[in-house]
């Protein structure tokens, strides 16, 4: 399913019968499609306000199909059908009524949505004589218009007062939501965040799918575990990789559980729909993602002499840009200083390679490297046990940070302790431990216990020249 605000597609592809029937598909401009449907569904002699209300409904219905990718997500090569059993009437090549054509030219880039939701309303409707439904009655709009109701008042009569009409919607080319490449361990970006948000919502209906604590666009092991569980449930190869088939199956099930293609939709809120992740990091940016990159660069720079060291500040300044360029040079990437998808994947792979070569040793005074995956509620590992030891020691100086028994299990107590630490030191309070939070906890622990800040990536056992 696409990410972002709905738009008006330049064209729409219509299947000229029921979805399963082997018949022709036609691609026409979106305004021409709406003119055809309106001319097929209602009469040009109806009151203008009734016609306008019906145009809003027909546009919203079509846009809902497109926005949710209702048919493409199920493998069909079209956006909508001409079957009134499934969609709305379309008669290829038919005559368009002049007044209807003029009104559609005015209104084709406006749609209905629920207040607080993003997606176009699944504006169910029927003729109101031979067929009745929970949505709008087409013949009923005539009666209401003759009573003097405006188009908006007619729509609220059928769909409730909590609707808006969104106008002047931009027109753009409709492209498939699948990014065109597989998403897997180590990838970052808005596409990763999209599947994380969708899988977390799906998991409420399918609790065997583990929750992803950090839906920030980083494809780490928790995301991989959720993908594998989803694939197992829905009969896909359980490899933890989001290929095209998995992408569209996730999108389809998300639409189903959210009821986005139903009149009583749960609704898609802005946080779920609007882009939150910047695919590239570059000079001038700041935040948790920059801290994570700086941590990985610090580790890699300690093991690769040609990679310039960088301080973990959370700000992408000249030092970080220089470090990124040096990393790109070592790993054969264009030396742009911008952390794009290819650079991120190479950086993560380099970090994981170093992590695999360094045994987990808790006997000395050194704090250890971040495990390469977010630590979160429900996990059990030696890294969780170390985290518990670090937090308990920090508790002696910062009593607000709760002491935690070193059990190795990430339960509610350690989550609460982590959340307080995040609050004290300016991190998002999600109770999960990513690279930047791990580094802050481990660094403070080392400073308090040994009298100096012994960052995990300092003093490595070997240097790669």
Question: Which features would summarize this protein structure in a list?
Answer:
465 residues, mainly alpha, two-stranded parallel ribbon, 15 helices, 3-stranded mixed β-sheet
In words, what does this structure look like?
The protein has 465 residues and is mainly α. It has 15 helices and 9 strands. It is 42% helix and 6% strand. Strands 3-2-4 form a 3-stranded mixed sheet. The protein is elongated, with a radius of gyration of 27 Å. Mean pLDDT is 89; it is low at 456-465.
Q: What gross morphology would you assign?
A: elongated
Q: Uncertain runs with pLDDT below 50, 5 residues or more?
A: 456-465
Note the beta-strand portion: 5-15%
- What is the H/E string? EEEHHEHEEEHHEEHHHHHHHHHH
């Amino acid at each position: 399913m696409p990410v972002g605000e709905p738009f008006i597609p330049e064209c729409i592809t219509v299947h000229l019968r029921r979805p399963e029937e082997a018949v022709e598909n036609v691609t026409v401009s979106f305004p021409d499609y709406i003119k055809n449907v309106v001319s097929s569904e209602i009469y040009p002699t109806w009151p203008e306000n009734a016609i306008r209300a019906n145009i809003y409904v027909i546009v919203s219905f079509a846009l809902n199909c497109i926005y949710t990718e209702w048919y493409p997500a199920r493998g069909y090569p079209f956006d909508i059908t001409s079957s009134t059993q499934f969609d709305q009437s379309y008669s290829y090549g038919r005559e368009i009524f002049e007044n209807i054509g003029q009104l559609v030219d005015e209104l084709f880039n406006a749609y209905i949505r629920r207040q607080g939701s993003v997606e176009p309303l699944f504006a169910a409707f029927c003729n109101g004589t031979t067929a009745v439904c929970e949505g709008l009655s087409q013949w009923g709009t005539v009666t209401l218009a003759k009573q003097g109701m405006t188009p908006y008042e007619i729509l609220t009569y059928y769909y409730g007062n909590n609707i808006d009409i969104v106008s002047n919607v931009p027109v753009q080319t409709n492209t498939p939501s699948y990014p065109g490449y597989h998403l897997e361990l180590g990838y970052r970006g808005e596409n990763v965040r999209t599947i994380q948000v969708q899988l977390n919502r799906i998991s409420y209906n399918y609790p065997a799918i583990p929750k992803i604590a950090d839906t920030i666009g980083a494809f780490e092991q928790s995301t991989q575990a959720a993908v594998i569980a989803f694939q197992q449930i829905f009969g896909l190869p359980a490899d933890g990789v989001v290929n095209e088939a998995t992408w569209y199956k996730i999108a389809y099930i998300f639409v189903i559980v959210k009821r986005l293609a139903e009149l009583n939709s749960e609704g898609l809120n802005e946080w779920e729909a609007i882009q939150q992740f910047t695919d590239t990091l570059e000079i001038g940016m700041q935040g948790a993602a920059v801290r994570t990159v700086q941590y990985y660069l610090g580790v890699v720079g300690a093991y690769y002499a040609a990679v310039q060291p960088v301080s973990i500040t959370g700000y992408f300044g000249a030092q970080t840009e220089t470090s990124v360029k040096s990393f790109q040079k070592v790993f054969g990437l264009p030396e742009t200083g911008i952390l794009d998808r290819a650079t991120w994947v190479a950086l993560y792979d380099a970090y994981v390679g170093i992590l695999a070569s360094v045994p987990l040793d808790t006997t000395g005074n050194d704090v250890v490297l971040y495990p390469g995956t977010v630590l979160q509620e429900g996990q059990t590992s030696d890294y969780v046990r170390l985290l518990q030891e670090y937090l308990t020691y920090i508790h002696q100086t910062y009593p607000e940070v709760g002491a935690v028994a070193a059990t190795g299990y990430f339960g509610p107590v350690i989550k609460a302790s982590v959340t307080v630490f995040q609050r004290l030191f300016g991190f998002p309070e999600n109770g999960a431990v990513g690279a930047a939070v791990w580094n802050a906890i481990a660094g403070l622990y080392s400073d308090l216990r040994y009298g100096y800040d012994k960052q995990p990536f300092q003093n490595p056992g070997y240097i790669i020249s």
